């Protein structure tokens, strides 16, 4: 979502279906499920108080992009859980992004800018920044590699202390 479209008005912006098609996996739990049905292939969901609830299985996390550092708490719980895929804005200079990049087993930079969907099904404007997918755990790494091969973007995995391009 671009900040000029609805700053502070709503966190109800949905991930487009083509992202899930590229990942090619199903999630046990969507931990930040919106009020309406989305394209997330999930078995269970949390809508309210997700940060206070116990997470289980392989998770999908597209958290609210609210205030300046509000995503940090979501990422802390995500990496503590250690099994899933998190979608965040590409804010590579932000401390929370740097920390997530350090903790991730793999990262995928989505090619182009994702136009998220509004609850009414319409497509939002081009956002002001790109989008990152962070992987935690081997199933998530495999999904990011599949998405790279499907052309969604460029995946990189942790090798020693450096990231290296995932072999296609």
Description:
The chain is α/β, with parallel strands linked by helices and about 170 residues long. It has one domain (about 5-165): 3-Layer(aba) Sandwich (Rossmann fold), CATH 3.40.50. The chain has 5 helices and 8 strands. Strands 2-1-3-4-6-5-7-8 form an 8-stranded mixed β-sheet, with helices on both faces. Helix 2 (about 15-25) packs across helix 5 and helix 3 (about 70-80) packs parallel to helix 4 (about 95-105). The termini are far apart.
Distance between the termini: 30 Å
For the largest sheet, list the strands in their spatial order.
2-1-3-4-6-5-7-8
Summed up, the domain count is 1
State the CATH topology.
Rossmann fold
Can you name the CATH architecture? 3-Layer(aba) Sandwich
What is the element string, with H for helices and E for strands? HHEEEHEHEEHEE
Query: How many helices?
Result: 5
Determine Rg (CA atoms, Å). 15 Å
- Give unreliable regions as ranges: 1-8
The helicity comes to 25-40%
Largest sheet: 8 strands, mixed
Number of strands: 8
Tell me the structural class.
Answer: alpha/beta
Give the overall pLDDT as a whole number.
84
Query: How large a portion of the residues is in β-strands, by DSSP E?
Result: 15-25%
CATH class: Alpha Beta
Principal-axes geometry comes out as: globular
């Amino acid at each position: 979502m671009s900040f000029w479209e609805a700053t502070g008005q709503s966190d109800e912006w949905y991930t487009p279906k083509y992202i899930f098609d590229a990942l090619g996996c199903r999630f046990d739990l969507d931990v930040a499920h919106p009020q309406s049905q989305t394209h997330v292939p999930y078995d269970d969901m949390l809508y309210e108080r997700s940060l206070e609830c116990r997470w289980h299985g392989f998770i999908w996390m597209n958290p609210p992009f609210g205030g300046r550092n509000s995503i940090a708490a979501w990422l802390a719980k995500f990496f503590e859980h250690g099994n899933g895929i998190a979608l965040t804005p590409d804010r590579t200079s932000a401390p929370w992004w740097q920390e997530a990049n350090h903790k991730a087993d793999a990262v995928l930079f989505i090619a182009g800018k994702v136009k998220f969907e509004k609850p009414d099904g319409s497509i939002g404007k081009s956002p002001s920044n790109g989008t990152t997918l962070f992987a935690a755990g081997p199933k998530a790494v495999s999904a990011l590699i599949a998405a790279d091969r499907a052309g969604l973007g460029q995946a990189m995995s942790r090798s020693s202390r450096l990231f290296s391009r995932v072999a296609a």
